[in-house]
Amino acid sequence: MIRDITIGQYYQTDSVLHRLDPRTKLMGTLVFIVSMFLADSWIGYAVSAAYLAMIIRLSHVPVGFIVRGLKAVMILLLISVSFNLFLTAGEHEILSFWIIHITWEGVQQAVFMAVRLIFLIMGSSLMTLTTTPNQLTDGLETGLGWMKKIHVPVHEISMMMSIALRFIPILVDETDKIMKAQMARGADFESGNLIERAKALVPILVPLFVSSVRRATDLAMAMEARCYHGGENRTRMKPLRYAGRDRLGYLVMAVYLGLMIALRSLL
Amino acid sequence: MAIELKKVSYIYGAGTPMEVRALDQVSLTIPDGQFIGLIGHTGSGKSTLIQHLNGLIKATEGDILYNGRSIYSEGFSMKELRSKVGLVFQYPEHQLFETDVFTDICFGPKNLGLDEETICARAREALDLVGMDSSYDKASPFELSGGQKRRVAIAGVLAMKPEVLILDEPTAGLDPRGRDEILDQVARLHREQGITVVLVSHSMEDVAKYVDRIIVMNHGKAVFDGIPKEVFKHYKELEQIGLAAPQVTYIVHRLREQGFPISDDITTVEEAREAILEGIRKKR
Ligand SMILES: Nc1ncnc2c1ncn2[C@@H]1O[C@H](COP(=O)(O)OP(=O)(O)O)[C@@H](O)[C@H]1O
Ligand SMILES: [Mg+2]
Whose CA is closest to B141, among B128, B129, B150? Predict the structure, then answer.
């Protein structure tokens, strides 16, 4: 049940995208997000769609796997679509009933919104699908290294992030196990009203919380035992280095962003 | 009153690149009153198998019958099955959540919808069965020692009065004394309450002393199934799948190779001692 969530998951395979430097991919994600806010016409969305399709193709991740990740945000998607559909004022009314007014502008707005959200989620999940959590935080730490000059604790933040990411699958596993164990003792999570269901979560949340604290202290102890003391003077086993494909990646991004800006100002 | 598995297969993450075939066409019958040891190397599918027995995971293929009726059939009550087939997970102390020991034990019977009086009676009885007297009732489960926590967690399942008790590696992470205490208590439960017990372990040494029957798992298949003496005769094959017969088996076989008169179906240290003394007397 919980295992269906694919957002933030890594998909093990070999592709150009997997081999790309994490900094390049981070920049690429940022560029894609910005471009989605630049798009305001059908042509703009068509260009983004083509760009996204090309990247998905390059990533060797099955489309079905990426689409499955959308299920988790379905509710969010539905809410924003219905807001746009019902609450957009416009001239061309196509349906009017009691307090519900659907306009042509509303439909267009809703479709754009849905496409934008879906693209954003697919685009950013491609980042995590092709980058291991370790690479991701390495990329963040190196890419944002300049912020150390203004006393932002970049290393500490990225260490916290990588530990948090590392713990997600462990906690998912743990939740699954605890749920099953309580079900074996007759617990029922699926029936009853809202309050009863919320109460039924206590036997899961308490052990989960206790085990998280236990794991955290164990990890802290293990790190300390190996003399870990923050970012100062730490060297890396695998320093990040740009390769030819990264330069090509940046070039592709620049062309795409330029095109999107051009489309917005011209149309 | 039996659990019957018919060609049960289970695949984790079917349809994803991480597909794992954890069970492969397992067929077996668990009759009433038996004490069964389920043995296998880590990852051989033991935990997956036992989670099928109370319907926590649904077989990808195959069928499971409880008292002759398929547990996947329309209208079969999983809740009732779970009260009849008690499953104690690995590291069960990680499921404790209440503020005191007694209330935690009450969780299972409460879920069965029993009345207050019966719940309390059952909780008390279960705690007695695992040797925790009433001085611990008001203690927080998080303050107990490792072995005590585990006993409380086992009591939590016993309070549901299951007919079949399944324990997944109940001795993992305990010291030798804690291990013997738990195993002795389980053996006593089996003897005195007459319940069916399935004991999961990766150590032959642990179970040889207690069980009537051993099922050996390897790569999701049940490869050996029989009384301990019979299974241990395959000690060479057992070694190949990363298991070892109890140490006495090796001594007995070495003695036989040297021409010492001793039977090859000895499984415990006590039996071996008797047989060796007997052999020495005969030789004189
Ligand atoms: N929740 C899970 N998701 C995916 N694979 C799993 C899961 N649980 C177990 N497996 C896999 O199934 C196989 C059998 O595991 P398990 O039944 O836990 O073995 P055992 O209890 O004998 O150590 C192993 O290869 C394991 O990696
Ligand atoms: Mg196991």
Answer: B150
Using a CB-CB distance cutoff of 8 angstroms, which residues of chain A are in contact with residue B157? 184-185
Q: How confident is the model at residue A84 (pLDDT cuts 50, 70, 90)?
A: confident
Indicate if the alpha-carbon torsion angle A93, A96, A100, A102 is positive or negative: negative
How do the domains of chain A map onto residue ranges?
2-131+241-266, 147-225
Residue B33, phi then psi, degrees to nearest 5: 80, 0
Neighbours of B265 (CB within 10 A): 15
Among the four given CATH numbers 3.40.50.300, 3.40.80.10, 3.90.226.10, 3.40.50.10470, the one describing domain B32-58+77-228: 3.40.50.300
CB of residue B12 inside a 6 A radius of ligand 1: yes
Tokens of B26: 């397992």
Question: Model ipTM?
Answer: 0.86
CA B125–ligand 1 middle distance (angstroms): 34
pTM beyond cutoff 0.80:
no
Query: In chain A, which ranges are E strands?
Result: 93-97, 100-103
Which SS3 state, helix, strand or coil, does residue B57 take?
A: coil
Here the tokens at position B136 are 């611990």
Confirm if B139 and B101 have CB atoms less than 8 A apart.
yes
- CB contact at 8 A, B197 and B158: no
